[in-house]
From TrEMBL:
One of its GO terms (biological process) is response to antibiotic. Coiled coil: none annotated. One of its GO terms (molecular function) is ABC-type transporter activity. Keywords: Antibiotic resistance, Cell membrane, Membrane, Transmembrane, Transmembrane helix, Transport. This is Transport permease protein.
């Protein structure tokens, strides 16, 4: 006689999300860094650079959009690229692969972790920005709808890219060294720390290849006035290109993850 049927992948994925969140919030250093780092940077840059970039557009307003985009990349790409590499090196992935749990449930758990932490981080950033730096939040429901799809595509692209990129780290010790410098460089060339159009042309061209540049611009289209679009590269928000490029990274990350993902360390077969 066959045993009881296993729960479906979706139900197991939800259960796995709960486990991932518990493990995440037990790591106090990681929690503090993930949620406080964007807020600290926003407060520092917003306090130091108090000039207006354009009529009615403070640097804090501009920088908030960039930090929202950067926070998504930290919560998705960086967290997963490092975390999965550590789990692989410690043998956690190998043990999970040996259980009846379908692989899809594991990835759904990671998606749930990224989604929850990204939303919490964004809410904290916006609330503290509004309270401490007089950040003006959108009043048009359509802008909140735009925020939702830009946010969702950014999370999805960062998640699949992080899963795929985790394969490059050959051990848990090298994971941070392989991932963090990439994230830092992307922040500098994607209009997070500086106004994107103030960067050299060649730097803008390189930054435009990667999703963070488009994610940051999509966020600016939500939090900055429509007139500021004229100061963007090409004189437009380029929302269609934003959707297209973030979707392309989502698909590319998924295909790479399916092709290269490993459940065991590189020195194991």
């Amino acid at each position: 006689m066959s045993g009881p049927a296993l729960p479906g992948a979706l139900r197991l994925g939800l259960a796995r999300t709960g486990i991932e969140l518990k493990e995440f919030f037990r790591l106090r250093e990681t929690v503090v860094f993930t949620f406080s780092f964007p807020v600290i940077l926003l407060f520092v840059f917003g306090s130091v650079f108090d000039a207006e970039l354009a009529p009615g557009v403070s640097f804090a307003q501009y920088f908030t959009a960039g930090m929202l985009a950067s926070g998504i990349m930290l919560s998705s790409f960086q967290t997963l690229a490092i975390g999965i590499a550590v789990e692989r090196d410690e043998g956690t992935l190998k043990r999970l692969r040996g259980t009846p749990m379908p692989p899809l449930a594991y990835f759904l758990g990671k998606i749930g972790l990224v989604l929850v932490t990204s939303v919490v981080q964004a809410v904290v950033l916006l609330l503290l920005g509004a309270l401490l730096l007089n950040l003006e939040l959108p009043t048009d429901p359509l802008l909140w709808l735009r925020l939702a799809w830009v946010f969702g595509l950014g999370v999805a692209a960062g998640t699949t890219a992080g899963i795929a990129y985790s394969t490059l780290a050959r051990s848990s010790k090298s994971a941070s060294a392989v991932v963090v410098p990439v994230v830092v460089v992307l922040q500098f060339i994607s209009g997070v720390f500086f106004v994107f159009t103030d960067l050299p042309g060649w730097m803008q061209a390189i930054g435009s290849i990667f999703p963070l540049r488009w994610l940051a611009q999509g966020m600016r289209s939500v939090f900055l006035p429509p007139e500021f679009a004229a100061m963007e590269a090409g004189g437009s928000w380029h929302l269609g290109a934003t959707a297209l490029i973030l979707t392309a990274w989502l698909v590319a990350g998924m295909l790479l993850a399916l092709r290269t993902f490993r459940w065991q360390r590189h020195d194991q077969k």
